[in-house]
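From the pipeline queue, job 12 of 40. The input is one protein chain; the requested action is below.

Action: predict structure.
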Amino acid sequence: MKRASQRPRHDAPIDWGAFWRERQGDLTPYALALTRNPDEAEELIQVVLTGMIQRDARPESPVSYVFRAMRHAAIDRARRDGADQRAREGLVSIAWVDRDAPSADPAELARLAAALDGLSDEQREVVLLRTRSGLTLAEIGDVIDRPEGTVASRYARGIERLRELMQQERTHDDT
């Protein structure tokens, strides 16, 4: 897999302000999930997008490029700050649940968040990037630096496990 510095550069500049306005709903929850802190999440997004503007970044796939840059920046910061990397990399599932959905039942959303927390970190990240952010399996592979086949496997296993956990949550609530 090519590293960011080796990726093709597009000739046309990218309007990062428009990108932010269009993808804010996906970037913010991901940044929050990575940092576990609203202020740090906001700073993470600012640092990444400012870096894109300063470097005049023109990646082939801006969406996966920014998600990957956010992930790497969060990991770098956790290492630099001496924090427990696993805890810092863990995802906060509730940040990804779309509480503004028109048919959002608070009890069902709570069950979903609990079920998401029951997935492995790797499965949860792939499932949420696919379902919440709409990235393709190839884009997710690019974000997390894994082959598309590995991503597909994690996604399939994650969805299957999520179904099992949701059923257990429903059964538990019925008793």
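Job complete. The mean pLDDT is 81.
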